[in-house]
Design goal:
With 139 residues, this protein is an alpha+beta fold. The protein has 5 helices and 6 strands, in the order E-E-E-H-E-H-E-H-H-E-H.
Length: 139
């Protein structure tokens, strides 16, 4: 399996179908790695398999989003599971407001990229580091 260095997830808290009087929830809008957008289908499958419960709202979610997540804690748990599934070193979660702020405040692409990896909620995949160390020791 190829190793991904990092994933950046951009999320928002909103109601996707206000005309249907649904409650607002957290949704992942974008998933990026060092090469660009991540295939959304695999990420959606992980959500459906491991994070949909009887309490998850059943309203229609736009095809490019993942969710709904009832809490930020559940979104973090999902993000970590995705990080493990894709064998990424870390995943960084940023709200839309934080992401837009980074875009507006950085003059250089390198500064934007650096801040993208340092800001937000950074979750590290410690298991990947352990596996990498053990595989080097027992080669």
């Amino acid at each position: 399996m190829k190793e991904i260095e990092y994933i950046v997830g951009v999320y928002n808290f909103f109601c996707p179908n206000p005309a249907e009087h649904n409650e607002a929830n957290f949704f992942l809008l974008y998933l990026l790695d060092e090469k660009g957008m991540i295939d959304i289908e695999g990420a959606q499958d992980l959500f459906k398999e491991k994070f949909v419960t009887e309490f998850t709202p059943t309203y229609k979610v736009p095809a490019h989003m993942i969710g709904p997540f009832l809490s930020l804690e559940t979104l973090n748990q999902y993000a970590f599971a995705l990080c493990e599934e894709l064998n990424a070193a870390q995943i960084n979660l940023l709200s839309v407001a934080d992401y837009n702020s980074l875009l507006e405040n950085q003059q250089l692409a390198s500064d934007f990229h650096r801040d993208l990896l340092e800001k937000g909620n950074v979750l590290e995949n410690i298991e990947r580091k352990k596996k990498g160390l053990l595989s080097r020791i027992f080669k």
